[in-house]
Structure formats: C-alpha cells, structure tokens
Amino acid sequence: MLVLCGFPISNYYNKVKLALLEKGVAFSEEEVSTGSRDPAVLAASPLAKIPFIRTDAGTLCESQPILEYIESAYPQPPLVPADPFAAAKVRELVTFIDLHLELVARELYPKAFFGGTVSEGNAARVRTLLTKNIAAFQHLARFAPYVAGPEFTQADCAAWASLPVIAMAVKAVYGEDLLAGAGVDWKSYQRFVGERPSAQRVTADRKAWQERAAAKA
Q1: pLDDT tens per residue across span 120-154
Q2: Would 78 be classed as within a structural domain?
Q3: Is-above-0.90 flag for pTM?
Q4: Which terminus of the chain has a lower count of CB atoms within 10 Å, N or C?
Q5: Which residues constitute the domain of residue 38?
Q6: Is residue 58 helix, strand or coil?
C-alpha cells in the first residue's frame, strides 16, 4: 500500500492527499516532520522535505512528481485532461501556484505563523513580487468553476491547498489580503471545492492534527 509521509498542516502534503482521495487510492499516512535527520527519511527525501511517498517500487519526493506518478499509476478518474494542450495548461497553473505564488509568500511564513521576523526590505521585495505574480496568475486562472476550467484537476489540488495559506500569510504581515485585493475570490472558490468529500476529509484531518498539537503544547 502507498504510504504518504508528512503531516496534515502542510499545504503540499494536503495537495497530494487531496489527489489520492479524489482518485480513491488506498494509502496510509506516516507522520514525518520537516527537517528530520532520520537516515530513513533522508534516503527518501534528501532535503528532509515533506511530503514524500513510499511505494512498492520505492520512494518519491516533491509534491508535483508525486502527483504525476499518481496520475500515471492510477489514471482513473483523471486529474489531468487527455488533450495535450489542456494538460499542459493545468501544469502551467500548478507551476504558477507552487513557484510564483506559494514559494514567494513562503518567505513571510516565519513572521506570519512562527513568531519569527522578516526584514522590512524583504517584506517590501516580496510584496512587489507577489503583486506582479498575482496579476499574472489572474491571466491564467479561470475559476469556471475550477481553477483550470469546468473539471477538477491537479491545479485544484494545488490551489485549494495553498491559496488560503498565502492569503493568511500576507494578511498577517501586510495587514491586507493581496489575493482578494487583486480580485481573486479565493474564499468562494475554497468553499466550493471544500464541499467535495475529499476536501472535507483533508480539512477534518488537519483540524484534528491541530487540536492534538495544541493539547500537547
């Protein structure tokens, strides 16, 4: 059985988990923290990042290669269109969400979520880059009703998992939601996708993990 390794607070972990649930793939979960020095973890994820998966064929890290493996190994129901160009447009959106929105906003996470700091210079630089990248994302995203069009795809796995985290981070640091301010109605989209059983499971598991963590603290 496929094993998903990581923890349910991670948006990239939830990106993969959402895809597995959408496809009805049987899997188990193994809690692994980011930055682990466990040799077994490093053998599977050399940068000690999560998520990674264990399969009968071996281990695999990085969320998008994992999604591509899942799509190939479990083709039904598809999360990537059969048409080559439409498939490329889905992957284009995933790249924008992961690299040009989330990865940029991630520089704010120490201050937004973990009690750390971000210099004024870095905060200003990130804001300028995010403003530009959000406008570019709007040229690609359709939200009709899903982010790539009428069907749920890998792009929704990325968007549903990451857009709220991005919005919370920028709101915490800048005092305003740059996504909503630019006209990205991510809250309505989040509620819409959140009605899917897969998203409800991811949300419930994340909340349960947070409650356990709070109780331990």
Answers
A1: 999 999 999 999 999 999 999 999 999 999 999 99
A2: no
A3: yes
A4: C
A5: 2-73
A6: strand
